[in-house]
Amino acid sequence: xxxxxxxxxxxxxxxxxxxxxxxxxxxxxxxxxxxxxxxxxxxxxxxxxxxxxxxxxxxxxxxxxxxxxxxxxxxxxxxxxxxxxxxxxxxxxxxxxxxxxxxxxxxxxxxxxxxxxxxxxxxxxxxxxxxxxxxxxxxxxxxxxxxxxxxxxxxxxxxxxxxxxxxxxxxxxxxxxxxxxxxxxxxxxxxxxxxxxxxxxxxxxxxxxxxxxxxxxxxxxxxx
Length: 224
Description:
- With 224 residues, the protein is α+β, with helices and mostly antiparallel strands.
- The protein has helices at 3-9, 23-40, 58-62, 82-99, 160-170, 201-216, and strands at residues 45-47, 70-77, 103-107, 124-133, 181-186, 190-195, 222-223.
- Helix 1 (3-9) packs across helix 4 and helix 2 packs antiparallel against helix 4 (82-99).
């Protein structure tokens, strides 16, 4: 599976089977976690065979999760850029997992933090989790905004790469499917991306920026 196919076929999954994730896939994901931690300065942790975070907690039941025992813990040093960085690198892991035949779901609140499992420093924050495993289903598609709703630039006069970036961004997961973000093409092929208001809006911004990069091609523009 290629990454554009992963973007178009990946949906959030909340119910997971008992099928174990193969050792080679876990090793590959751990390699990616180490790589992205080095690149970003984050402290992402891959947690396996740990069902308590999505077990008997009221939040997990409220979020209607079942069978979750593997997840990424998205942790990093507290800063203004932490949430956006978590979104960007977390979505890298999400799409890599999809290309391996695994399913995922971004989880903001519907879990219980297990203190003796996670390694969180005094100056660090657990932003969210990403559930991981073999889904009971492949999830379902959700209604998306039109490209015109998320672009300040007139798409009729925009270059193809920009329009493709917008299309990929609209396929990105966002909290409660808000899609509260705006892109704008400026002079010198610079692109601005801004988050709207709402829960996890800055995490969402990091996610959609990574999607935009895939669709537009990083050689075609620079972030403002």
